[in-house]
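Notes taken during the Thursday session

The instructor put the following on the board and asked us to keep it in front of us for the whole hour. The protein is UPF0147 protein apy_00770. We were told not to look anything up and to reason only from what is written here. First, the residues (89 in total):
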Amino acid sequence: MNLPADNEGKIKLAMSILVTIINDTGVPRNIRRAAANALTHLRDPRLSPAVRAANAISALEEVSQDPNMPFYARTRIWQVITILETVRD
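Then, after some discussion, the predicted structure tokens were revealed:
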């Protein structure tokens, strides 16, 4: 997968992956709630892109080691974290 060059493109890609996690009823509710929380952080227009990404990563890292998470959801969460780690101001 090629990452977009700009920060907003990276954030939009991460947001689209988070939306698929949120809408997947096979993912436990606490994981979907953390994904929704991360999405809220990414949509906050008051903060810079790097701060929004860092806040979202923090929300996702709390659940990334949850033993009840399906493997495919864990992979998607790690994919989002990897994308957001490249966002810089």
